[in-house]
Design goal:
37% strand, Transf_Hexapept/Carb_Anhydrase, binds coenzyme A, mainly beta, Trimer_LpxA-like_sf, 12-stranded parallel beta sheet, 178 residues, UDP N-Acetylglucosamine Acyltransferase, domain 1
């Protein structure tokens, strides 16, 4: 039977220690996943026309799609997808060719498009659309379609960014029986 974690053009995903990948998630090609990551049911990530990097202690929740944009003359690097440490990516998000820092929560159903950069410590509300090449500044809440900078994060929201990642590390440990 074909594995749900598979090579593309001879490049196999690299997966860190104590990382949980649900058997219904699909991980293909040039993808580097850190330690203590949780990849939940029905996630699709495809590192085919560019690469994907996911940091440590990040979680990618159910039904999320991660993809990238190819390299070409006008844009020699294309758009890889880079996700930092302690990031929570909610259910059914679409992250395409963007760059995320550390301690970010991407609300359920959010869409983040090519070239967008999300700095550390940002909360993105459920259903938010982040258009291409936007910069989301550290310490703020963004919501809406298209996204708007809503307000600075409250201290408890800031603290929750790391707490959320912790919760998901604990949950994936339960699933792994650790
Ligand atoms: C945005 C969010 C952080 C709440 O922020 P808040 O400032 O406390 O929002 P409030 O509940 O006080 O609502 C303030 C206004 O924003 C609106 N609002 C709330 N969430 C919104 C969202 N995601 N997008 C757009 N508007 C939103 C409310 O309707 C309200 O509008 P009103 O003043 O016209 O009635 C929260 O709703 C959210 O989206 N969290 C993400 C949760 C998630 O997806 N987690 C991952 C899964 S585990």
């Amino acid at each position: 039977m074909e594995s749900n974690i598979r090579s593309y053009k001879g490049i196999a995903p690299k997966i860190g220690n104590s990382t949980y990948i649900d058997s219904s998630a699909v991980v293909i090609g040039d993808i580097t996943i850190g330690d203590d990551v949780g990849v939940w049911p029905l996630v699709a990530m495809r590192g085919d026309v560019n690469h994907i990097v996911i940091g440590n202690r990040t979680n990618v929740q159910d039904g999320t799609v991660l993809h990238v944009t190819h390299k070409n003359k006008a844009n020699p690097d294309g758009y890889p997808l880079i996700i930092g440490n302690d990031v929570t990516i909610g259910h059914k998000c679409m992250l395409h060719g963007c760059t995320l820092g550390d301690r970010i929560l991407v609300g359920m159903g959010a869409i983040i498009m090519d070239g967008a950069i999300v700095q550390d410590d940002v909360l993105i509300g459920a259903g938010t659309l982040v258009p291409p090449n936007k910069l989301l500044e550290s310490g703020f809440l963004y919501v809406g379609n298209p996204m708007k900078k809503a307000r600075p994060l409250k201290p408890e929201e800031q603290a929750f960014l790391l707490k959320s990642a912790d919760n998901y590390v604990n949950m994936k440990n339960d699933y792994l029986g650790l």
